[in-house]
Amino acid sequence: MDPVSHAASGAIALMALRSRPATAWALPLAALACASPDIDLVFCHSPLDVLLLHRGITHALAASPVFGFILALFCWPLWRKSTPGYWKFWQVWLFCIGMIWLHDWLDVVTTYGTMIFLPFSHYRVRLNSIYIIDLLVTIPLLLGIFLWHGKRRLILLVFAWIFFYPAAGIALNAWHTGQAEARFEAENRNVDRIHVLPDAFAPFFWRMIFEEEKDGVFTVRSQGLDALGKPRTAEDIHPAAPKELVDSLMARSTECAVFFDFAVLPVMDGLRPSFLPKDSDNPDYRLFYDLRFGSNLEFVQKILAMRPDADLPFLLMTGLGRNDAPELVRLRFSDSGRDSGWHRPDPIHKPEFLEWLVGLR
C-alpha cells in the first residue's frame, strides 16, 4: 500500500478510540507508527536488498513486539505524565503493535507479497484484493482526518471500511477465480496457476494471469475482467520462462534465486539493445519479468508510461553461457531507480540456501 494510506490509517485508528492522550503529537505519532514498517527501505541499497528486505522483518508478526517497543519509546509524548489523558507505557506499546498489524493488513491485501511469518518462513502473503494505490481506501481516510474530525461515528465507519473493503475484494477474487476455472474447464483448455489480480479502480476492474500449455508450448496470458469477473479484453500472450532454465538459474545465482522466488508466473523475452552491455559479444541474453504489476486499462497504461524511467518495475537480465549457466546478471527496478548494472553472478555458496529461501516452492 502507498505510504499516504498507511499513515492516514494510523491516524484514523487513533481518532476511533474513545479516549486518547490530549497532545498535538498524538495524530502524527499514530501516523508515523503505522507507516514505520516501511523503514526497511532505508537499508535497501541495491535491487537485491529490496527483494530480500522490503516487507520483511519489520513487517513480521513475530518481531512486532520488539519493533512496537522501540516505537513506543519514540512515542513518549503519549505516555508522558504531563500529557492530559496520557496512556501508560504498556498501552502505548500495545497501540504501536496494533499499528504494525494494521500496516501489515493493508500490505497483505495487495499483490506485492509480505513476509509476515519471518523468521520461520519466507512465504510472501499476497491476498490480491486491492491495487497498490486505491482511491477507495485513501479518499475516505483523508476525509475522516480533515473533514470529519470529532464525528466519531463517521470515523468508526471509516475505520471499519479499512477492513470491510479489502475483505470484500478477497471474496470477489475467490468468486472470479472460480468462474475462470469453470470457464477454462468448459473450453477444455489446459490452464494452470490462475491468479486473479485487482486492476486500478478495483473492484470495478480486475486482471487475470495464468499459464497455458498447448502442444507442448507454455505461455503466460493476461486478460482484463469486469466487475462481474467476465472477460473484457482479449488475451495478451507472453512466452513463459522455461522451468528448466529457471531451475538452472536459481541453482547458480543468488540474484536469480531471489528474483524467481519473488516473481509470479515469470515471462521471458529478448533483451532490448539499450539494455545490452557495451562490450557484448554473447548474443544469448534474456529478459525476465513479472506481469502482475501491470494493468489492462488503456488510460492507466498511458499514465504509467508517463513515469520517469517508465518501464516494467522489476526486471532480471541474464547473459547465458554453456548449459544455461549465467555469465552475467543485472537487476533493474525502474520505479525505485535501483539498477545493479551488469556483473558476474553471486554464486550460491551454501547448498541449503535455495531450500532455505524457496521453501516448498
Average pLDDT = 91
- State the order of secondary-structure elements, H for helix, E for strand: HHHHHHHHEEEEHHEEHEEEH
Poorly predicted runs of 5 or more residues:
none
Q: End-to-end distance, in Å? A: 25 Å
What is the number of strand segments?
Answer: 9
- In what order do the strands lie side by side in the largest sheet? 5-6-7-8-9
- Percent strand equals 15-25%
Shape designation: globular
Query: How many helices does DSSP assign?
Result: 12
Question: Pairing-aware structural class of the strands and helices?
Answer: alpha+beta
| Main sheet properties | 5 strands, antiparallel
Rg is: 23 Å
Q: Summarize the amount of helix as a percent range.
A: 40-55%
Describe the structure.
- This protein is of the alpha+beta class.
- The protein has helices at residues 3-15, 26-35, 47-53, 64-74, 76-79, 89-108, 135-146, 152-186, 243-252, 254-262, 298-305, 353-358; strands spanning 191-198, 206-214, 217-225, 236-239, 267-270, 285-289, 315-320, 326-333, 338-339.
- The strands form two sheets. Strands 5-6-7-8-9 form a five-stranded antiparallel sheet, with helices on one face. Strands 1-2-3-4 form a four-stranded antiparallel sheet, with helices on one face.
- Helix 1 (3-15) crosses helix 7 and helix 2 (26-35) crosses helix 6.
- It is globular, with a radius of gyration of 23 Å.
- The chain starts with a helix and ends with a helix.
Helix/strand layout:
Elements: H1 3-15, H2 26-35, H3 47-53, H4 64-74, H5 76-79, H6 89-108, H7 135-146, H8 152-186, E1 191-198, E2 206-214, E3 217-225, E4 236-239, H9 243-252, H10 254-262, E5 267-270, E6 285-289, H11 298-305, E7 315-320, E8 326-333, E9 338-339, H12 353-358
Antiparallel strand pairs: 1-2, 2-3, 3-4, 5-6, 6-7, 7-8, 8-9
Helix pairs in contact: 1-2, 1-6, 1-7, 1-8, 2-6, 4-6, 7-8, 9-10
